Amino acid sequence: MQAELDYGEAEAIALFLENPVDALLLDEKSARQVAARMGLPMLGTLGILIWAKQHGVIASLKERLDRLINQGGFRLGQQLYGRALRLVGE
Question: Where are the domains of the chain?
């Protein structure tokens, strides 16, 4: 497992295995693939933001995503971007 992941991702998975919670927070594709093979529940930044919009924690998913993409260098494909916005009615 560790050969596929950087130190932080490997540690996050190890910590989850020692002390399971509702979901493991992972964004990197390689880490998500490893967690999926292990059958671990996971959530990424996009999932958290969708949840926040659906529960009234944030007013606009589009605003948050655009800020992450333009200022934070967050990478998100156009298809997924559009699907997320449609999911929350934006």
Answer: 2-43, 45-87
- Residues in Cβ contact with 53 at an 8 Å cutoff, skipping those fewer than 6 apart: 59, 60, 61, 88, 90
DSSP for 15-80? HHHHS--S-EE--SHHHHHHHHHTT--EE-HHHHHHHHHHTTS-S-HHHHHHHHHHHH-----HHH
Q: How many CB atoms lie within 10 A of CB 52?
A: 15
Question: pLDDT 10s per residue in the chain (90 long)?
Answer: 546 788 889 999 999 999 999 999 998 888 999 999 999 999 999 999 999 999 999 999 999 999 999 999 999 999 999 999 999 999
pTM of the model: 0.78
